[in-house]
Amino acid sequence: MTHGAGPESVHVSLPGDRPPWTPTGLRVRAGDRVTLLGSGFVRWSPRHDVGAGTKYHLWGRVPGGEIFGCTADTTTAVVDTDGELELCVYLGAWADRSGTLATGDAPYARVSGGLEVTVLRWPDGVDPADGLAGLGPDDAAPALVAAERERLAHPIRRPEGWEYLLDFGPGDIYRATELDGAPAIEVVCDDDAGILRTPVDVALGPDTVLEWTWRVDALPSAVAEDTTFTHDYLSIAVEFDSGRDLTWFWSAGCEPVTGTFACPIRGWRDRETHMPLRSGTDGLGVVHRERRHVHADHERFMGPAPERIVRVWLIAVSHFGRGTGRAVFSDIVLTDGDTRVRVL
After folding, report:
1. Would you say residue 233 lies in a domain?
2. What is the count of structural domains for the chain?
3. Region Disordered: what ranges (predicted)?
4. Model pLDDT, residue 5
5. H-helix or E-strand containing 152?
6. Is 92 in contact with 104 (CB distance < 8 Å)?
């Protein structure tokens, strides 16, 4: 641990199979700014080359406060309570925002690898961007320092009125933009995963239609997405008052509509259904307008329809194949007869 005019710093090793919280030895006060510079890889399976790094797995907290995740391999956060900073390799699903895992310790038994993290606590009055500029190669990895300086200089703001699903945490995947002069959300998912959602309250009836405009520029997968280790995709979804969701996506290899499948990921299988709407590379980079009869799609592939739609989601996953997916969504509307509810 270092002290002095610069930041107080510690280096922490986080084995992937250690559940879940590790003390850093670094005492902080509410309002302190801390920077995390992380590297490494957590492997999810001994038989498949799949896993993720810092921006998905690294989370922090001070006990008694709220957890915070990374949006990249580096992040800077303001802590919300006094105490010792703790870090974790996140696996499973959160039960709450204080850092309790709903899934317990069992997922840790299946992984290997780990993360290496340099933690910097900035003195009062020191802007982290300025402080990072003064660090030398003996203080922290220069590439990570440069990445965090760039991230701080050009922050990506999530679209107003939308929030990230806690299960995947915050990200730099979604950003506000325009498509043909209309408000839109750009998706850039580079070896990452995140769900952005916004609340709605719409009765689900036989005439309920979801409409949207999208331009998909790059698919994150090169093969069919209906297996656990090829499940990289970009989609739009609706969440029902049953707690389940139905998602429509552009597939690399699944048959449109008839290739609909239950999510292959453990913990999501009974919750989420995926409908391929388009397939292959023809039409990529072109703006398309879509319409889906939500009630009919639910009845056909998920059983009797629930009563209401409670949220609209945008989903991006690309960390199984470590590729990049790119798309823009615009003009999202739920309609039922003469009723129109604008989502975006």
Report:
1. yes
2. 2
3. 1-25
4. 64
5. helix 142-153
6. yes
